[in-house]
Design brief:
This protein has 340 residues and is α/β, with parallel strands linked by helices. The chain has helices at residues 6-14, 31-37, 74-86, 114-125, 156-173, 187-197, 218-223, 244-255, 270-279, 290-301, 307-321, 331-338, and strands spanning 47-54, 60-62, 70-73, 91-96, 130-135, 148-150, 153-155, 177-180, 206-211, 260-264, 284-288, 325-328. Helix 3 (74-86) crosses helix 4, helix 8 crosses helix 9 (270-279) and helix 9 runs parallel beside helix 11. The radius of gyration is 23 Å and the shape is globular. The chain binds ligand PBG. Residues 134, 136, 138, 146, 181, 217, 220-221, 233, 289-290 line the site of ligand PBG.
């Protein structure tokens, strides 16, 4: 039996058969080459850090299901914002947990509420940091749903007026951007009209346009104490089976005046991010939600994967899919890693 040596094989391939002319591995050999040819280059510029604000002073309540994330009182929140800004993070998005919850979520539109207070304090201490706010009632209602309940169901149209009041309270306090996350029909148009009528024509709206009814919001609901007390959100958030419907939601929101559209969650909906990016020309954001964060944190803590690499890989994938803005609880860690 003839023994073929390796040298003769490579000789035959290179000359007689002309193979391999294309060696895809050539550009992968060193870190420098890989850096030079990378197609996706995430930067700190597109990062938005979600923050949970609670009443009181000196409060930092760790959230068990989100290691490294805490509910913060305004004073501690300002420190966190300063740190984020020093790391080069351009924006934060605020979620409020009020003193009192009621059936209508009235704390949501109080000018003295926890979010307006936080906005004023941040704008004073860190004026260049962009302050966005989540506009939704679920953190403020005692039933945990994102709107007014009648006959056991969330009522769309009566909810709109309350969302407008909430967005206005945020704008009056100095919010740079409002982000409705409730998934009521027509809320972008209603909020735009409400803002314009009070002179806030320059406050942009980032619509949670394609927001899915997702199991990945679990840890957030601990953080925001907003778990629905009955039923679930499938009657207003989108069905994970649908991507074409996301394009319709996005088109409606853009038509109603959304300046930025968001897809949420991110990792399980990369196809939706890519489709939305191809369909519209407004900036596209994606929300890497609490469960995506918790998944990586828990697996890393159990020694099952490398946290830093898993974080970077997932984030790169979200940017590669087409998100120019990424809301992520990893924002500070990413900023440290990506540099300015
Ligand atoms: C409020 C809201 C939710 C999230 C953002 N805004 C929760 C929900 O819809 O139940 C989830 C964010 C996260 O999981 O990180 N409606």
């Amino acid at each position: 039996m003839r023994i073929v040596n390796a040298e003769s094989i490579s000789y035959r391939r290179d000359t007689a058969m002309g193979f391999p002319t294309h060696r895809a591995r050539r550009l992968r050999r060193t870190a420098t080459l890989r850096r030079l040819v990378a197609e996706t280059r995430p930067t700190v510029d597109g990062l938005m850090l979600p923050l949970f604000v609670v009443p009181g002073t000196g409060v930092a309540n760790p959230i068990a299901s989100m290691p490294g994330v805490a509910q913060l009182s305004v004073d501690r929140l300002v420190e966190e914002c300063r740190e984020a800004s020093d790391l080069g993070i351009p924006a934060v998005i605020l979620f409020g947990i009020p003193e009192h919850k009621d059936a209508y979520g009235s704390a949501a539109w109080s000018d003295g509420g926890v979010v307006p207070r936080a906005i004023r304090a941040i704008k004073e201490a860190v004026p260049d940091l962009l302050v966005a706010t989540d506009v939704c009632l679920c953190e403020y209602t005692d039933h945990g749903h994102c709107g007014v309940i009648e006959k056991g169901e969330v009522q769309n149209d009566p909810t709109l007026a309350l969302l407008v009041k909430e967005a206005l309270a945020h704008a009056r306090a100095g919010a740079d951007l409002v982000a409705p996350s409730d998934m009521m029909d027509g809320r972008v148009g209603a909020i735009r009209a409400g803002l314009d009528a009070e002179g806030f024509v320059d406050v942009p709206i980032m619509a949670y346009a394609a927001k899915y009814a997702s199991a990945f919001y679990g840890p957030f609901r601990d953080a925001a104490q907003s778990t629905p007390q009955f039923g679930d959100r499938r009657g207003y958030q989108m069905d994970p089976a649908n991507a074409r419907e996301a394009l319709r939601e996005v088109a409606l929101d853009v038509e109603e005046g959304a300046d930025i559209v968001m897809v949420k969650p991110a990792l399980a909906y990369l196809d939706v991010i890519a489709k939305v990016r191809a369909a519209v020309d407004v900036p596209v954001a994606a929300y890497a939600v609490s469960g995506e964060y918790a998944m990586i944190k828990a697996a890393a803590a159990a020694g099952m994967l490398d946290e830093e690499r898993a974080m970077l890989e997932s984030h790169t994938a979200i940017v590669r899919a087409g998100a120019g803005i990424v809301l992520t609880y990893f924002a500070k860690a990413l900023a440290r890693r990506l540099g300015r």
